[in-house]
Each structure stands twice: as C-alpha cells, then as structure tokens.
Amino acid sequence: MAEPVPGNEPLRIVVADDHPVYRDGLAMLLGSVPGLVVVGTAADGEAAVAVALEEQPDVVVMDVQMPGIDGIEATRRVTSTSPSIGVVVLTMSEDDGTVFAAVRAGARGYLLKGADQEEVVRAITTVANGGAVFGAALARRIAEFFAAGPTGPEAAFPS
C-alpha cells in the first residue's frame, strides 16, 4: 500500500474540554473545516489521555482546567507516551506559570479561548506539521522571559 501524500489525508483531531457546549461546538466547528476530522472528544484529563492513545490523532486540543487530572498532566502523559501527537492548549488562563507548565509538559501550541476559528485552525495545522504556536501576547511574554536571561548564578561554578 502506498504512503498517503502529505497534505492529502485529513488531520486527525481530539478535542478535550470539560464544558460540553464548548467541547461539542469546537468539535463541530473543526469538523466542518476541510482537511480536519475530529476522531474523538473527552470531558476530562483521564479520558483525554485514553482517547489520544487509542486514536493516535495528529493533534489534541486540550483545555487546562478539567476534573481529575488537569490538561497539563494529561499533556505530559500523551506527549511522553506518544511524542508524535501534537498538543495545542486552549485555555482561559494566560498567567506565565500555566504557559510555562504547558510547554514543559510538551504542548507545542498555546492559545486563549478568545482565539478565532482561523487562529485555532492555523495552530492545529502548524503543530501537526512539527511547528509551535503561541498567541501574539503570549509569544511576546515568552520572548521577554528569555530575553531577561538566566536568573541563576552568573558563573557556571560559583566559588
């Protein structure tokens, strides 16, 4: 059997969010976009991990605040078990701690729930193709964080 031509097969998506209206609405919206297919949804972190590991989607769109294990821990479990699965965190929280925790857990995308459809679709396709996406305000804060330099000792071996 021949390998599918890149860009020919639809991107497989799992949507994980504990709010049914948001989860189902996002799944319906993404499913209506040519080139995307939603292969599963999950209402909590445990289900998100189970569905992701079973379906092996290209991307999981993951909420942070969910019952049971949160989206950060679910992201860590998915990316450590299946590194080929990209995770885009979609959340209300823009505090630095949450952003950096998500990135440390393996998320390659981080968007606020106020993002429009185009931005979400672009993030999914970018992450599916190996890239990373952070909303403009978050990208600026991440750049500022790294531009500030290390906060540890100046010398490698302080005396």
From TrEMBL:
Report the leader peptide range: none
Keywords from UniProt, A to Z, are: DNA-binding, Phosphoprotein, Transcription, Transcription regulation
Keyword match Cell inner membrane: no
Q: Which InterPro entries match?
A: CheY-like_superfamily (IPR011006), NreC/VraR/RcsB-like_REC (IPR058245), Sig_transdc_resp-reg_receiver (IPR001789), WalR-like (IPR039420)
Q: Which SUPFAM superfamilies match?
A: CheY-like (SSF52172)
Give the Pfam families listed for this entry: Response_reg
Q: What is this protein called?
A: Response regulator transcription factor
